[in-house]
Amino acid sequence: MRYQVSEGAQADLDEIFLYWAKRTSLDTADQLIDRIVDRFWLLGEFPDAGKRADDLARGLRCFPAGKYLIYYRKTRRGVEIIHIFHGASYRFRPFEKQGNDDKEIILR
């Protein structure tokens, strides 16, 4: 496997699944999660595919998955998926901490 999913990203996937399962159906929610996770494989093979997001945290990249944005960083063996957000959401919230020097901590 060329990608790892952080606890934060797994929580994001769970939240996305529950949101769509409640509003549509389990099948629809499952298909959406599958489409997002398919992008993880792509990023593992082509880690430079995403746009740099250094304004949020050093080494962070962003790649679209439908209306969602996958935030990740490159590792020696592929990529680590950090967070997944809806494109219309406030993207800075999960990366903020008391000081700018602490941004790296929130990504782990």
Detailed description of the structure:
The protein is of the alpha+beta class and 108 residues long. It has a single domain, classed as RelE-like (YaeB-like fold, 2-Layer Sandwich), CATH 3.30.2310.20. Helices cover 38% and strands 26% of the residues. The chain contains three helices and five strands; from the N terminus they run βααββββα. α1 (7-23) runs antiparallel to α2. The chain is globular, with a radius of gyration of 14 Å.
Our Rg estimate from Cα atoms comes to 14 Å
Total count of domains: 1
Q: Average pLDDT, to the nearest integer? A: 86
What overall geometry do the principal axes of the alpha carbons give?
globular
Secondary structure class reads: alpha+beta
CATH topology: YaeB-like fold
Quantity of strands, as a count: 5
- Number of separate helices: 3
Report the biggest beta sheet as strand number plus sense, adding barrel if it closes. Answer: 5 strands, mixed
Helical fraction? 25-40%
**Approximate strand percentage:** 25-35%
Low-confidence stretches: 97-108
CATH architecture name: 2-Layer Sandwich
Cross-sheet strand order for the largest sheet = 1-5-4-3-2
CATH class: Alpha Beta
CATH superfamily: RelE-like
- Alpha carbon gap, first and last residue: 19 Å
Task: Give the H and E element order.
Answer: EHHEEEEH
